[in-house]
Amino acid sequence: MGVLTKLFSSLMATSRRKSPWIYTINSGSCNGCDIEIGPCISPRYDAEQIGMLRHASPKHADILVVTGAVSKRIKPALLDIYSQMPSPKAVVAVGSCPASCNVFAGSPVLDGPLDKFIPVDIWVPGCPPRPQLIIDGIAKAAQMLADGQTADQLGKKVAAE
Amino acid sequence: MTEILSLIVGFLIWPGLIVAAALGFFYMWLMRKLTARMQGRKGPPFYQPFFDFVKLVGKRSLVPRDSSRVLFFLLPFISLTSTVFGLMILPLPGSAAPSFSGDLVLLLYLMEMPVLCDVLAGFVSRSIYGQVSAMREAVMSLAYSVPLLASVIALAQAADTFRLAELHTAPFGLVTVIAFIAFAMAIPARLKSNPFSIPNAEHEIGHGAHMEYNGLPLAVFELSHALELMLLIGTLYVLFLPGTGHVATDALVYLAAGFAVVALVVFAKVSTARFTVKSALRFYWLWGGLAAGAAMVVAIVS
Of the candidates A21, A48, A84, which has its C-beta nearest B43's C-beta? Predict the structure, then answer.
C-alpha cells in the first residue's frame, strides 16, 4: 500500500512538472511584457516542448502569469481570477512592474506592488524580460508545483493591507 | 461465465478503456506533434497527453455556483462510458465483440452521446462562452450528421444488414467509395478541428463548452475526446476497410487507418482558417447532402 501511494505521488509530481498550463493577465502593464509572453509559444522558443500551453480559462490553468503594476481598476478582477484557479496553483510575476511598480511607483491610480494581494512564487525580472527568462520562470514554477513548495500548497497568505 | 468475462475484458482492456486510452493519447500526441512540425516548431514529447490527464486528475474541482453539481460531475462520465461502450461493440481486430443484429444502430446512438453531453455541459456550466459553444455544437451536429448518417445508411442498404460484423465483410462497390467520401467529409467537424473548430473556437469563445470545467471532470472530458477519435477511426475501419482474415494484418490495416486519419485531419487543421457557422452549415448541406444523396441513390439502384 505504501509503495502504491509513493508511486502515485511521484507520478503526480512528474505530471505537475511536465504540464504547466498558464493563464496570463495584464494588470495595467504597458503591454511590453505581454508582447514578450507571446513569442514563448512561437516557433522560435516553442514552450510546448516543456508542455506549456496558454489557456483561455483560469479554471484550466496551473500558473497565473501576471504583468503590470496592479491598477485600482484591475485589482478586483485579478483577485477574482486568482480565486477561480483550482489548487494547486502558482503565480509568476513577469517584469519589474509587479515587483516594484517600476517607473509608475507612487502613481495615484496604482494599488501595487502585486505581493500585497496575492502570494507570488517566482519573480521574473526585466523591463521587459526576454522570452527565455519567462519560460525559465514558468519551468521553475512548475518545479515548485511538483515539489509542493508554492505559496498556495504551503498555505501561505499575504499580509492584509 | 466466460461470456461475462469476455465482456468485462472488452470493456476494460481491448477494445475498451485501457488500450484505447493509450492509443487515443498516442494519436492526440501525434496530432499536436504534427501540428507543431507543420508550424515549424518542435512540439511536445509523446507522453504529454498522459501527463496532462494525470495532472488534471490531481487538481481540486471547482463547481460554478449556479450550476447543478450532480450534472456537472455526471456529464463527462456519461460521455466516457458511452464512448467505451461504442468501442466495445466494434468488431476490431482481436476483440471479442458481442455481435447482434442492429448493433450499427446502437453504435450510431452511442456516437451521438458525447456530442449531447458537450451541449448539456455548455448549458450546465452557466458560462456565456459555454452557452454559445453549446448552441454552435448543436447546429454543427445537425450539419455534419447529414453526410455521416447517410453514408452509414447507404452502406447498410447496399449490404442489406444492420450488423457491424457483416458490414465489415461486405463486398466493395461504387457505394462504398461514395459513402466513404461523405463519411470523410464529416470527420473534421466531428472532431471539432479546423476548418470546423466552430464549437471550441479558441480566441473567440475560449474553450467552449469546457470553459468552466476543471480538475477531474475536465480530465475525463479530455479522455473522452481521445476515445471519440478512436471510435471514429474504428467505425471507419469497420465500415470501409476490408478484413484480411488474419489478426496481425487486420491490426496493421487498423493502425494505418488511424495514422491516415490523424495526418489528414492535422493537414486540414493547419492549412485552413475557421468557417463561420453559416458557411459550415451550407458546406455540409450542399456538398455533404450531394454526396449523401448520391450514396443513397447508388445503394438503392445497385
Answer: A48
Q: What is the pLDDT of residues B37-69, one digit of tens each?
A: 999 999 899 999 999 999 999 898 888 888 888
Q: State the nearest Cα–Cα gap between B258 and chain A, in angstroms.
A: 24
Q: Does B270 touch chain A (CB under 8 A)?
A: no
- Do A51 and A20 contact (CB within 8 A), yes or no? yes
From A144's Cα to the closest Cα of chain B, the distance in A is 14
CB contact under 8 A, B36 and A48: yes
Number of Cβ pairs closer than 8 Å across A and B? 81
Q: Determine, for residues A48 and B58 on separate chains, whether the beta-carbon distance falls below 8 Å.
A: no
Give me the number of domains chain B comprises: 1
pTM of the full predicted structure?
0.92
The string of pLDDT tens digits covering residues A25-72 is: 999 889 999 999 989 989 999 999 999 999 888 999 999 999 999 999
Closest approach of A139 to chain B, Cα-based (Å): 14
Domain around B14: 2-301
Question: CB distance A18–B60 less than 8 Å?
Answer: no
The pLDDT of residue A94: 93
Cβ contact B51:A51 at 8 Å: yes
- Residue in B36, B40, B51 closest to A51 by CB: B51
